[in-house]
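Re: [ENG-882] Designed sequences occasionally contain unexpected residues at chain ends

Forwarding the minimal case from QA. Structure tokens:
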């Protein structure tokens, strides 16, 4: 069954969550190791979760700063955060942050659970990108969970149980959580006619603007 949904609190104890996210960390590490070892076929192409894919002129999930119903002040905040995020991505690239094929969408519905066993589905957003973005997609909807710190540490521990994770990459998590918020606003804005989207947009805009403001504050 899916780990959960994007609205309700996770229905697990802290002990169960620590096990599940440790195992998810194992799974993500195995995925990254397999993709590194895979000999990419001639002509193989996928989109990229890189600077252009996140904050370029045409991001993969949409130009979030042009979302409808943003005030001019909101748009200026997002544009400022976009510029700062682009500079941070440039710095990570130059510093050698881990980059390769990623899943790029570890939302709760894409994490299937049987007991403590974890499996992943839905690879349509998979492409070349920074490995830390996979962590961000697994954690972004869990930030309001009372056991968030335990969830995050278990994910890191599970990953490091199977694969190296540098301090550089770990310290970039907040950047990629912010980029996930940006991407989600763009994604939802492009689906305004779908059921339930209009009702959710105010909360999504607020969350994204809060993320942008916090990111800008952290860079000052």
């Amino acid at each position: 069954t899916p780990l959960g949904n994007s609205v309700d609190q996770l229905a697990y104890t802290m002990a169960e969550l620590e096990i599940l996210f440790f195992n998810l960390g194992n799974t993500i590490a195995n995925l990254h190791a397999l993709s590194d070892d895979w000999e990419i076929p001639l002509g193989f192409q996928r989109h990229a979760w890189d600077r252009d894919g996140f904050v370029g002129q045409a991001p993969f999930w949409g130009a979030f700063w042009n979302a409808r119903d943003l005030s001019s002040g909101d748009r200026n905040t997002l544009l400022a955060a976009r510029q700062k995020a682009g500079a941070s991505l440039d710095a990570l690239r130059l510093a050698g942050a881990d980059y390769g094929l990623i899943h790029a969408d570890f939302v709760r519905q894409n994490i299937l659970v049987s007991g403590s066993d974890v499996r992943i589905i839905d690879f349509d957003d998979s492409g070349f990108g920074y490995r830390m973005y996979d962590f961000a997609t697994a954690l972004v909807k869990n930030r309001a969970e009372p056991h968030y710190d335990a969830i995050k540490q278990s994910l890191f521990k599970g990953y490091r149980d199977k694969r190296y994770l540098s301090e550089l990459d770990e310290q970039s998590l907040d950047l990629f959580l912010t980029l996930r918020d940006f991407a989600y606003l763009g994604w939802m804005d492009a689906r305004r006619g779908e059921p339930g989207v209009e009702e959710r947009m105010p909360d999504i805009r607020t969350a994204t603007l809060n993320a942008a403001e916090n990111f800008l504050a952290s860079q000052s």
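QA comment: On inspection the terminal residues look reasonable. The mean pLDDT is 95. Proposing we downgrade this to a documentation issue.
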